[in-house]
Amino acid sequence: MPKNQLKNLRKARKMTLEELGERIGTSKQTVQRYESGAILNIPTDKVEALADALGVTPAALMGWEEGFSYAAFDNLSPIRGRHLPILGDIACGEPIYAEEEHESYAAVSDNIPADFCLRAQGDSMIGARIFDGDVVFIRAQESVENGEIAAVIVDDSATLKRVYFYPDKQKLILSPENPKYEPLVYIGEELSTIKIIGKAVAFQSSIL
């Protein structure tokens, strides 16, 4: 949905949040979350109810192309996107320096919970279908579950690996997804040089 679209339509019809909520069978708090973008995936029945209450078509409300209804197909949905900064390249082989290239941005769908992205280099993660040049979307967080793929800073360099941490042994393993590379193992005081900066939640490849 285009920014402020729902709010502008509601105000143009001199309708309060509470009134619109009553018309579509939900609370004013939920309507406010629709307007603010806190809820990105509005249920199809609510989209139709909102459009009916505001006197527009669902396509006009959501900014979709008129004459085509995505709701008619279970496996189709419109892409509502934004742009995230690419914070340099990240190694899928040996760690490399993670420079912040804020002048570079990548488009991402609103339903991907990412905070920034990195461009992969190398072939150590091909087993996870992440190839050289792919854009990897990262959700910022300081820890991940064992077996999850994370962006990790090692001595001021960044690498993308599966993470396995064993606190009782003070042992961290950064595992590649390519048998020609050995896992990176850090024990004890070596852990002070490691910092997880986020979990990989999606990646983008070109098929053309």
Helix and strand layout, with pairings?
Blueprint: H1 5-12, H2 17-24, H3 28-36, H4 44-54, H5 58-62, E1 81-91, E2 96-97, E3 101-109, E4 116-121, E5 135-140, E6 149-154, E7 157-166, E8 171-175, E9 184-187, E10 194-204
Parallel strand pairs: 1-4
Antiparallel strand pairs: 1-3, 2-7, 4-5, 5-10, 6-7, 6-10, 7-8, 8-9
The beta-strand count equals 10
**Structural class by secondary-structure content:** alpha+beta
Strand-residue fraction? 25-35%
CATH topology of the largest domain: Umud Fragment, subunit A
Helical content stands at 10-25%
How far the N terminus sits from the C terminus, by CA atoms, comes to: 28 Å
How many whole angstroms does the radius of gyration measure?
Answer: 22 Å
Q: State the CATH architecture of the largest domain.
A: Ribbon
Tell me the CATH superfamily of the largest domain.
Umud Fragment, subunit A
Order of secondary-structure elements:
HHHHHEEEEEEEEEE
Structural shape: elongated
